Amino acid sequence: MDKKAAAAFLDCSTKYIDEFYMTQPGFPYHTKGRVLQYRISELSKWLDNHQQYA
């Protein structure tokens, strides 16, 4: 999926997707040429591993 779809899946803005890509080690992405792509299964797994509880 593209950045816009990934942002919708994670319920955040595309700006945060860019920030996660640049600053979060292990943020799941793939490249196809110069285009970044994301997989739902990998984003879901990443999200589960990065939950913060109050």
Order of helices and strands: HHEEH
CA radius of gyration is 11 Å
* Spatial order of the strands forming the largest sheet: 1-2
Task: Report strand %.
Answer: 5-15%
* Number of distinct beta strands: 2
Kindly report how far apart the N and C termini lie. Answer: 31 Å
* Uncertain stretches of 5 or more adjacent residues: none
Main β-sheet: number of strands, strand sense, barrel status?
2 strands, antiparallel
Oligomer: single chain
Structural class: mainly alpha
* Shape descriptor: globular
**Total DSSP helices:** 3
Helical residues, percent: 40-55%
Output mean pLDDT: 91
What does this molecule look like?
With 54 residues, the chain is mostly helical. 52% of the residues lie in helices and 11% in strands. It has 3 helices and 2 strands; from the N terminus they run ααββα. It has helices spanning 3-10, 14-23, 40-49; strands at 30-32, 35-37. It has a two-stranded antiparallel sheet. Helix 1 packs across helix 2. It is globular and about 40 Å long.
Summarize the structure.
The chain is mainly alpha-helical.
